[in-house]
Write a structure and sequence with these properties.
Number of strands: 0
Order of helices and strands: HHHH
Oligomer: single chain
Radius of gyration: 13 Å
Organism: Occultella aeris
Protein name: DUF4287 domain-containing protein
Number of helices: 4
Pfam families: DUF4287
Distance between the termini: 22 Å
InterPro entries: DUF4287 (IPR025629)
Shape: globular
C-alpha cells in the first residue's frame, strides 16, 4: 500500500483528512519530537487504527508531506504518484496530469 493510500484509508476510517488529524495531534501535544508509540496509541484508542496506518501519519507528523521518491513512477505495491502527499482530503486532490 502506498503512503497516499494509507492516508486515504485513514480519512475513510476516521472521517478526518490528514491535515485535520495533524491539528488534533498538535492539540494533544503530539509533535515531531514525540515518540511514534504516542501516535499509535492515540489513533488506536480514538479511531481503532492499526500500526501501519498510524506509522503513515507519524511519518507526516515527523517529516511533513514529503516522501522518498524511490517508489514514485514504479509499478510495485508501494508506488506513489508523487513525492508529496496530499493532506487535504481525497475529494480535493487534483487529478494527475
Amino acid at each position: 500500500m502506498s503512503f497516499q493510500a494509507y492516508l486515504d484509508t485513514i480519512e475513510d476510517k476516521t472521517g478526518h483528512t490528514p491535515r485535520e488529524l495533524l491539528a488534533v495531534a498538535e492539540a494533544k501535544g503530539i509533535t515531531a519530537g514525540s515518540k511514534a508509540g504516542d501516535v499509535v496509541t492515540w489513533l488506536a484508542d480514538d479511531y481503532g487504527l492499526g500500526r501501519g496506518h498510524s506509522m503513515a501519519l507519524w511519518h507526516v507528523i515527523k517529516n511533513g508531506p514529503q516522501i522518498s521518491s524511490k517508489h514514485v513512477g514504479t509499478t510495485g505495491a508501494h508506488r506513489d504518484a508523487s513525492d508529496t502527499l496530499w493532506l487535504d482530503g481525497k475529494a480535493t486532490r487534483p487529478t494527475p496530469a
